[in-house]
Design goal:
single chain, 126 residues, alpha/beta, five-stranded parallel sheet, 5 helices, 5 strands, globular
Length: 126
C-alpha cells in the first residue's frame, strides 16, 4: 500500500475527473478537483499538496501557464510541489513543453493507474 497523498486534480472534463478521482480514492488519496489553471494556481497558494495532476488544454488558463505561475510562486519557499502533466496528445514536443513549464513528469490520456503509480514512484513521492 502506498502513502495516502493529497492531490490536486486540474481537469476540465467531468468524465476524466471522475475516472481519476475513483482510481485515486481507491488508494486512499484525498483529492481536490478544479477545472482550469487559474483555479489550480489559487488552490496551490492556499493549500499544500503532495502532487498536482495538471491537464494541458483547459479553458481560462492552460496547464502550462498555470505550472509556470506555480513554480514562480513556490520559488520563494523551500519546496516544489510535484506536477504531472496530463494530455491527450502523444507528441514528444508536449513532453518537452511540460518540462519547460516546470512540470516534473508527463502522462497521456486515457489515465492509466499503473502508469501513474510508476510515475510517482519514479518521482520519489511514494
Amino acid at each position: 500500500m502506498s502513502k495516502a497523498l493529497f492531490v490536486l486534480l486540474v481537469e476540465d472534463n467531468p468524465l476524466n475527473q471522475k475516472l481519476i478521482f475513483v482510481n485515486l480514492t481507491r488508494l486512499g488519496y484525498k483529492i481536490d478537483i478544479v477545472s482550469n489553471g487559474e483555479e489550480a494556481f489559487q488552490k496551490v497558494k492556499s493549500t499544500r499538496y503532495d502532487l498536482v495532476i495538471m491537464d494541458l488544454m483547459m479553458p481560462v488558463m492552460d496547464g502550462l501557464e498555470s505550472s509556470k505561475l506555480i513554480r514562480e510562486y513556490e520559488s520563494s519557499f523551500e519546496y516544489s510541489t510535484p506536477i504531472i502533466g496530463l494530455t491527450a496528445n502523444t507528441f514528444d514536443s508536449d513532453r518537452e513543453r511540460c518540462i519547460e513549464a516546470g512540470m516534473n513528469e508527463y502522462m497521456t490520456k486515457p489515465f492509466s493507474l499503473e502508469l501513474f503509480l510508476n510515475k510517482i514512484k519514479k518521482l520519489g513521492i511514494v
